[in-house]
Sequence to fold (419 residues):
Amino acid sequence: MKEILFSYINNSIDLAVELETGLTKWPAISPESGGEGELDKCIFLQSWLKTHGITELERFDAPDNRAKGGVRPNLVATINGIEDGEESGRLWILGHIDVVPPGDENLWDSDPWTVIRRNDSEGAKLIGRGVEDNQQGIVSSVLAALAFCAQGIKPQRTIKLLFASDEEVGSVYGINWLVDNHRYLFRKNDMVLVPDGGDLKGEFIEIAEKNILWVKFITHGKQTHGAMPDTGANAYLAGAELTVRLHEGLSTVFGERDPLFDPDYSTFQPTKKEANVPNINTIPGEDVFYMDMRILPRYSPEAVLAEIDRIKAAVEAKYHVTVEYELLQSMVSKPTAKDTPLVKMLSKAAAQVYGVQPVPIGIGGGTMAASLRNAGIDCAVWTKTDRSLHKPNEYTLLDNITGDAKVMALLAMESENNN
Fold:
């Protein structure tokens, strides 16, 4: 059976290119990033899947009046397996259909929304925004599912493919919304693969994520003339010191290390900075900056926020300003155990296809796995990737698409009783 499935996947290069090309044409960018959302791309994918024989499809639309059609769609495809009773665990493969903006298009060698196929020393590749993040995972999962459907082979376990919205800016309208509003979709003994993070060899299986805090800080002072600082309160100066104190202070207080992660420590990084005043000779009365915090699971977000409160109080007193902050994202993720059937089966499958000996790791990035892990469902994040995501001239290797599809097919063939 494996040979039949692998042969189908090997002969599906043109199909992979067709689907990647079709998906890339629809810029599924979130409203937060200036886009209309994922509706058009989801409609295309739904139609494409039906045309190619995956017909058991159901859409779950999260309401969002900022997006086209007023919704953020989440599409589920089902390929029924031999073990399909109420207590049977299904194999979920979670992809996301949203993408990040292309950035400065002058840095691209071609139109980001038109797939270019190219051969070079790395092999055959497709170039375009989203082709790797996360369309590589989507296309691989579809090829794996089609290998069963086209050959009339029933997988051992039911395959559930999720094509979710909103992953790039927090999954509020994607997996988090599904878990909150359609929890019945997921069974306790389901296994979930998220092909949205990995390494060049396919040897890292992500089983844990750092806790995440995205925080917006607003410093309120008193605007005045640049020559008369004593008559005002410089919000920019106070905000600058707050930035440094937060970075250095939080890094010290929460400074333990964990070799499961790379980097092996908690990170507290200032990132975005908003403009304050338009001219040089005015001291600003308001200043806004943002921080991205990736915290080892041993530390709770509550403990970090308590230390933030202590640091901001010291800055307020020194500069006679007030500081408020807003949590834009707060995510806590429970780990998946190293010895779960999912991790064992994935390790075995990746070894067969790529000849590697996979090792479990933790990461600082946030994925859709966090929501399901917190709901008590085993998840692993894995793929073989060239890590071109979010870059100009983003690309995916066709060998990675077909190789990952083979790993997914092997997972669907396996019975948990065989491990």
Q: What stands out?
A: The two ends are 19 Å apart (CA to CA). The mean pLDDT is 95. The chain has ten helices and 17 strands.
